[in-house]
Amino acid sequence: MSRSPAPTPAATATATHYAERLSLPWWLWLAGPALGGFLALELWLGAGGVRAWLPFVVLLPATVGALWWLGRIRVVVADGELRVDDARLPVRFVADAVPLDAGGRREVLGVGADPLAFVVQRPWISGAVQVVLDDPADPTPFWVVSTRDPVRLAATLLAARDAR
Fold this sequence. Notes:
Blueprint: H1 9-15, E1 18-21, H2 26-44, H3 50-70, E2 74-78, E3 81-84, E4 87-90, E5 94-100, H4 102-109, E6 118-120, E7 128-133, E8 142-146, H5 150-163
Parallel strand pairs: 6-8
Antiparallel strand pairs: 1-2, 2-3, 3-4, 5-7, 7-8
Helix pairs in contact: 2-3
């Protein structure tokens, strides 16, 4: 009977690592500045002096800044914890991770919603993962996190939890 060698720490680290940025789709980067430019054009309406260029100087950078801010969230599973933006959840408190499609996400955030749940939801991303918690000191029953690859994130979370 042969035994397979134990996984090395490097192999375990790569198997329990996930990183994703919840960035905006490319078409929003085109539509957003176009909409900002249209609004600046409406505010300008042929005015002279400072009112001629001020809407363009303020609204176009503000639009690009708002688009960047909307797409800045990162979802990372590393070092024994799930990080979603500034929130951190040690994987030892993960009871289960359920991948959700668009319908499942709608169910969890609609009819099955809990006001104590931690939710990071991006409407332009259809998938999500529901992370059920097992922490008696925390009143949060579960997290719902948007992701483009819910099956992989759920599997990585459960693998990281089991590796601990």
